[in-house]
From TrEMBL:
Superkingdom, natural source: Bacteria
InterPro entries hit by this protein: Cyt_c-like_dom, Cyt_c-like_dom_sf, Cyt_CIE
The keyword Electron transport appears for this protein: yes
Ranges for domain Cytochrome c: 54-135
GO molecular function: electron transfer activity; heme binding; iron ion binding
The protein's name in its UniProt record: Cytochrome C
Signal peptide limits: 1-21
Lineage, opening ranks: Bacteria, Pseudomonadati, Pseudomonadota, Gammaproteobacteria, Alteromonadales
Length: 135
């Protein structure tokens, strides 16, 4: 083999090797990032599952995730959080059980379960109790 040819082969091999090394390190980076992402997501899912499986969500949690969008500002006439003037007439007329049933089934612009289809009946009731707390 002539010296010039040897250099050409060596240089080509080096180029190929460098390209492979680059690919490998990209894969390595991907592999290193992946488990961190997976652990993070798995942790979040575990927390979610615990909330679903490990007993009821608190009324405040349900309110903040499902009801706040309408009941904070009184959207479409929704009775507002902790505002007695909005809630008292409803409670006088129907009682807690009556407004609870309407929350489960929906009433006018109030969607069934306030769109929280995964909420249990008791979680909806807890959210109502949170909204009328102290009125
Ligand atoms: C899309 C907006 C919206 C969301 C989300 C929403 N509500 Fe309502 N809610 C309303 C409106 C509007 C009314 C008033 C309905 C009426 O009496 O005409 C209402 C009324 C109510 C009432 C009174 C029912 C009665 O008999 O007077 C309860 C209780 C209630 N909502 C509970 C909840 C709970 C609990 C959540 C969350 C899980 C929730 N709502 C989410 C809009 C909403």
């Amino acid at each position: 083999m002539k010296l010039k040819t040897w250099f050409t082969v060596a240089a080509t091999a080096l180029t190929v090797f460098a390209a492979q090394a680059q690919e490998m390190s990209d894969d390595e980076i991907a592999d290193r990032i992946k488990p961190i992402g997976q652990v993070h997501v798995a942790g979040a899912q575990a927390a979610g599952n615990n909330a679903a499986a490990g007993g009821a969500k608190s009324g405040e949690d349900v309110y903040n995730s499902a009801c706040v969008a309408c009941h904070a500002a009184g959207v479409l006439g929704a009775p507002k959080l902790h505002v007695a003037a909005d809630w008292q007439p409803r409670l006088d007329e129907r009682g807690l059980d009556g407004v609870w049933q309407n929350a489960l089934n929906g009433i006018n612009a109030m969607p069934p379960r306030g769109t929280c289809s995964s909420c249990s009946d008791d979680e909806i009731k807890a959210a109502i109790e949170y909204m009328i707390e102290g009125i």
